Each structure stands twice: as C-alpha cells, then as structure tokens.
Amino acid sequence: MPELVVTALLAPSRLTLKLLRAFMWSLVYSAALVAGAIYGCIALTHVLCRPRRGCCGRPRRAAPACLKDPTLGKHGFLSLRSSGLRLHYVSAGHGNGPLMLFLHGFPENWFSWRHQLREFQSHFHVVAVDLRGYGPSDAPRDVDCYTTELLMADIQDVILGLGYSKCILVSHDWGALLAWNFSIYFPSLVERMVVVSAAPMSVYQDYSIRHIGQFFRSNYMFLFQLPWLPEKLLSMSDFQILKTTLTHRKRGIPHLTPSELEAFLYNFSQPGGLTGPINYYRNLFRNFPLEPQELATPTLLLWGEKDPYFQLGLVEAIGRRFVPGRLEAHILPGAGHWIPQSNPQEMHQYMWAFLQDLLE
Q: 78 - beta bridge partners?
C-alpha cells in the first residue's frame, strides 16, 4: 500500500490521540494549579505556626548514626554501564544465596528496608539501593534523566553489575512502579517479585478513570508536575510537610523514632536534594494513555487495608491483568501504606513462605 495512503488512513487516529493527550495535559495542569494552591496554604500555615523555623529547610550537617549501623550491611557504590552514573547501595549476606534487590519509594531511601536487610541476609545476598536522585547516588538535574526507560536501565545495570543474571525484586511505592515495568520488559532478570503498596501504571490509569476518588487520594502527584514550587513548599518550616507525611498518627509510619525520621530528611535537606525525587513524578504522565499489559512474573503482592493513598479496589484490578496462578495477594488488616516499616513481621512471614521453594 502506498505510503501516502497509509498516512491518510492513520491521520484520524493520530489526530484523536493528539487531542486526547492535549485534553489530558490540560486536566493535569489544572489539577496541578489547584494542588499548588492547597499545599501552598498548608505550607504557609506551618510557617505561621512555627515562625522560628522560617521559610526554608535547614540543611543537616551530619548524617544520623542509624544510617551507619553496621548490622544493616556494608555501603558501596556501583558505576552503571548504561549511564555512567554511580548509585549508592547497602549490601549484606554476600554468598549466602540469590540476589534480593530492594527498590524504595518516596519520600524514602535505602534505610526504609532496614528490617528486611536484617531478616533475609542469612539466606540471600540482600542489596538496598538509593535510586538515582536519592541520597549519595548521582542526581542529574534534568527532568529527562528520570524517564521510566532510564530508571529501568539502572535496575538492569545494578543486577548485572553485581554479578547476577537474575534476582528476587522487592519493591515499595515508586520502586514498585519501576519493578512492575521492569518485570514486563526484562522478565529473564526477575525470578520472583515482592510488591508492596503500588499498582502498574496502566492499571492505575484505567482504575482511576473509573474511580475518581483515587485521583483525590493521589493529589500530591499533580502538585509535583509544577516546576520549582514543590521543592519550595516541601522544604518550608524545616520540611514540615515531609515530617507530617512520615509521622502522622494515622497516615504515617508508626513508632518512627526522631533518628529514623532524620535518616530520611538528611539527604532531602541538602541543596537540590528534593529535585531528583520529584522529577520522577514530572515524567509520570509522559506516556499516557498506556496500553494494558499482561503480567506473568510470579509475584507476592502486599497491600494495607487502610492505605491512605491507594484504594483497595486496585488489588482486584491488578489480579485481572495476571496470568492465572502467578499472583499471590494479601491485604493486611489495619495496615497503612508503609508496610515494610510498619508491619515487618507480617511481611517477612509472607515472604518466607513465598520464597521457600527457592531455599530447598
């Protein structure tokens, strides 16, 4: 068929797609402006209630001692083959078994896996990385350096750079978004997956269109589409919004100590420390609308019954995308969003049972 004819036949579909994307971006930026106004009021209220803290965050001069706890493992850096960036990681149990690679979420870092590093190092080589833009890992400033494709290449380079051909991939929140995609495009590198509190982006997209309340639960994502303003608002009153997110009585991490809180705030408080992590969100809508994708990697999915950010209905929506028999899903009664830190014992029990056949 002549190229001109093909182009003419495809023209209506291409125009429809462009109009759909233009409409979507108009909605996203409208929601971003509303979210900016709301979070601006919240940040200003924090400043007025705590005037001595001022409008800027206080850079921490020294890392808290818990970040140097030797029982969690040894610190190292890995140079990535694809990008040349260096990622920081903490490793323990080398030579004890298969690679168990941990991917953290926002606003966290490798330290969010402290309970799992201690628990599994006796039977696995456990490695918790600081994703690009986080902690001591390299943090490019450009938004285009945080696309899903580049972040998946980082995971591939970490697995191969550590000397392995596959891994057990354990992930939470943003790390889980990357893990879902990674298992689709690099299935040979993932033997098993443990996913906590996150859905594949295509599932999230389709579910949110049908359940508008999910958009309200994830309203912060729209704020993060704006340039520079999110970094400013999150840092005001010495990072009070982040402090509230992590320590809130109902929505935060239960029993988080002041030292553990500082373990998360330390790197965010450094100059430019928030830009890399927020750039993940600035690329979130880049490829919308997304096509549904079949999920086939054997996966353990853990979800908090009272997760304030993601509705329970997403669990069933995820299950509908799976090859039968490949998904084991559990809803933890009374648990929130931060299961690796709030409910480690329950998480460990499910993980040991899920991985038992690999140890025999």
A: 87
pLDDT score, position 5: 52
Statement: the pTM of the whole predicted model exceeds 0.90: yes
- 281 classed as catalytic: yes
Name residues of the chain where pLDDT drops below 50. 6
Identify the active-site residue in 146, 204, 281, 350.
281
Residue 217, CB half-sphere, CA atoms under 13 Å: how many?
17
Q: Which of 46, 88, 125, 337 is flagged as catalytic?
A: 337
- How far apart are the C-alpha atoms of 352 and 360, rounded to whole Å? 12
Catalytic entry in 173, 206, 238, 307: 173
String of b and e for 88-108 (b: at least 16 CB within 10 Å)? bbbbbbbeebbbbbbbbbbbb
Q: How far apart are CA 310 and CA 73, in angstroms?
A: 32
**Per-residue DSSP letters for 73-91?**
-EEEEEE-TTT--EEEEEE
Which tokens belong to 63? 């890392």
pLDDT score, position 13: 59
Check residue 261 and give its pLDDT: 98
Instruction: Give Cα 349 to chain centroid, integer Å.
Output: 23
Say whether 123 is catalytic: no
